[in-house]
Amino acid sequence: MEENAQKWTDTEVAEIKETILTALESVIDPELGIDIVNLGLIYEVEFEQTGNTVIKMTLTTMGCPLADILTDNIQSALAEIPEVTNVEVKLVWYPAWTTDKMSRYARIALGIR
């Protein structure tokens, strides 16, 4: 098989990305007790044919001391997905995170209207 040949169809890649997002829901922000997906911290999931996966995420504040813990927990959560061969977590600060990015579930859980 050529190196550039596709292993997965676009539909399968979309399904793998959904599996990745579901796994990321198991990563809980220790301060807020809500998962990073519902908090709106995950900005993008890139999944390449090689299995290389890039998670673009932000934090609630720039100096958040939890970056390493969350990164380690993301690595652990995605290690369970056989299609994912490598994980890179990229912290991005734009657009800035606001409570508007939170899901309805997260807002209710934290008492934010």
UniProtKB/TrEMBL annotation:
Tell me the ranges covered by the MIP18 family-like domain, including all copies.
17-89
Q: Which Pfam families does this entry report, sorted A to Z?
A: FeS_assembly_P
Superkingdom per UniProt: Bacteria
Q: What protein name does the entry list?
A: Metal-sulfur cluster assembly factor
